[in-house]
């Protein structure tokens, strides 16, 4: 019995996700340039031809990963915007970021690495810039939340909040066994997520 279009779509989505998860794992372990399409296909246990059916190149794989990361950020930010008060919105951002790094610290390290790559690398720089542009847009949304919260100098407060989260995420991803993430998360919430 032939597969239905819905079943074909499900298989295509599952295969795409499997390829991306495999590539991300290899990129985290070896770096983007040190990972080949052949390695991704072998690790994913598919033929190179099938991989090329889904992605034209390794750069296309990176582009899809960056788009996925941007989507993850948008999901958290859009959900935050639905919360009833600015304090709850900011709390949602903090919890989303810190829960995310706890679930997938290697992913955080990979994207941090992508941000810090030399701008002379034209492939990586293009995607690093795309991530930074989206972060800048979301920073403005976050700053509006602090403005509505009524804090003095909302832009500076938003910058301090983002810097605090990034520092916590870096420390946790570097020292996961010794870092008291839950306690630090509670401290962040107490400091940033109360109504003025």
Question: Can you walk through the features of this model?
Answer:
This protein is an all-alpha fold. The chain has 2 domains: 56 residues, Arc Repressor Mutant, subunit A, CATH 1.10.10.60; 134 residues, Tetracycline Repressor, domain 2 (Orthogonal Bundle), CATH 1.10.357. It contains 9 helices and no strands. Helix 1 crosses helix 2, helix 1 crosses helix 6 and helix 4 runs parallel beside helix 7. The model has no long low-confidence stretch (mean pLDDT 91).
SSE blueprint and pairings:
Blueprint: H1 5-30, H2 37-44, H3 48-54, H4 58-81, H5 86-103, H6 105-115, H7 122-149, H8 154-174, H9 181-192
Helix pairs in contact: 1-2, 1-4, 1-6, 4-5, 4-7, 5-6, 5-7, 5-8, 5-9, 6-8, 7-8, 8-9
The CATH fourth-level homologous superfamily of the largest domain? Tetracycline Repressor, domain 2
Q: Are there runs of 5+ residues with pLDDT below 50, and where?
A: none
Helix content: over 70%
Pattern of helices and strands: HHHHHHHHH
Number of strands: 0
| Mean pLDDT metric | 91
Distance N to C terminus: 64 Å
**SS class:** mainly alpha
Q: Estimate what percentage of residues fall within beta strands.
A: under 5%
Domain unit count: 2
**Bulk shape:** globular
Largest sheet, strands/sense/barrel: none
The CATH class name of the largest domain reads Mainly Alpha
The CATH architecture category of the largest domain equals Orthogonal Bundle
* CATH topology grouping of the largest domain: Tetracycline Repressor, domain 2
How many helices in DSSP terms? Answer: 9
């Amino acid at each position: 019995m032939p597969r239905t279009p819905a079943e074909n779509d499900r298989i295509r989505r599952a295969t795409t996700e499997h390829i991306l998860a495999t590539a991300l794992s290899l990129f985290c372990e070896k770096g983007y340039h040190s990972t080949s399409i052949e390695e991704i296909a072998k690790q994913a246990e598919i033929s190179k031809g099938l991989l090329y059916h889904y992605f034209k190149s390794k750069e296309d794989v990176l582009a899809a990963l960056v788009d996925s990361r941007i989507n993850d950020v948008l999901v958290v930010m859009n959900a935050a915007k639905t919360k009833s008060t600015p304090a709850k919105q900011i709390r949602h951002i903090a919890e989303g970021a810190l829960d995310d790094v706890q679930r997938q610290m290697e992913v955080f390290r990979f994207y941090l690495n992508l941000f810090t790559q030399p701008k002379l690398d034209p492939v990586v720089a293009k995607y690093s810039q795309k991530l930074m542009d989206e972060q800048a847009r979301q920073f403005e949304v976050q700053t509006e939340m602090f403005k509505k919260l009524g804090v003095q100098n909302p832009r500076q407060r938003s910058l301090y909040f983002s810097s605090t989260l990034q520092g916590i995420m870096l420390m946790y991803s570097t020292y996961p066994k010794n870092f008291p993430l839950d306690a630090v998360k509670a401290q962040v919430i107490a400091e940033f997520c109360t109504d003025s």
